[in-house]
Design a protein that fits this description.
177 residues, alpha/beta, Nucleoside Triphosphate Pyrophosphohydrolase, five-stranded mixed β-sheet, 8 strands, 20% helix
Length: 177
């Protein structure tokens, strides 16, 4: 099933482009990743009934990130988001709508070669706020999983997440700053 790019159906999305210059050895690893092969990565900005946002702490990020991951063949972007949140947090969610799209590219600092994916951030609602996963289990490298009354002060990629959070109505909930 081909992916439907949310930009083809919505004109209210936050659209950004990100570039990260990396050395050739890091570029080779990145270019060989599941995310690059898929071409699509989906993150979920999930809210519970109290308006809290679900975030995970992954050591590579140096801060709190949204759960998510690469699209698998045959999945819609919404299905990818729901699967990834279930796998990473144990929380069952329902997609609301895509809110942001970022064209993310690694740049080989030696050759200028590009590799990357289209990142889509979905707003979602939790069917239940229970976190049903031990973060120390499996290969996800998740240090912690929490609900926040607002975005934490050490959120990863605030340039994308803060305006996306506001588009989801999160600015009315306050922040944990």
């Amino acid at each position: 099933m081909p992916v439907t790019d949310p930009r083809d159906r919505r004109d209210d999305l936050l659209e950004t482009e990100s570039r990260e210059r990396v050395p050739p050895d890091e570029f080779a690893d990145a270019a060989d990743s599941e995310a690059v092969e898929s071409g699509w990565v989906v993150l979920g900005l999930a809210f519970d009934d109290a308006g809290r946002a679900l975030m995970i702490d992954q050591p590579w990020a140096d801060g709190w990130v949204l759960p998510g991951g690469a699209r698998k063949p045959g999945e819609t972007l919404g299905e990818t988001m729901a699967r990834e949140l279930r796998e990473e947090t144990g929380v069952e969610v329902s997609p609301v709508a895509p809110r942001a799209v970022d064209e993310f590219r690694f740049v080989n600092e030696q050759t200028g070669e590009l590799a990357g994916w289209t990142l889509v951030v979905f707003e979602a609602v939790a069917d239940s706020p229970e976190i049903d996963r031990d973060p120390s289990v499996d290969d996800e490298e998740i240090a912690d999983i929490r609900w926040f009354d607002g975005l934490p002060g050490d959120v990863f990629n605030p340039e994308l997440l803060e305006p996306t959070y506001e588009r989801c109505g999160g600015s009315q909930q306050g922040t944990d700053r």
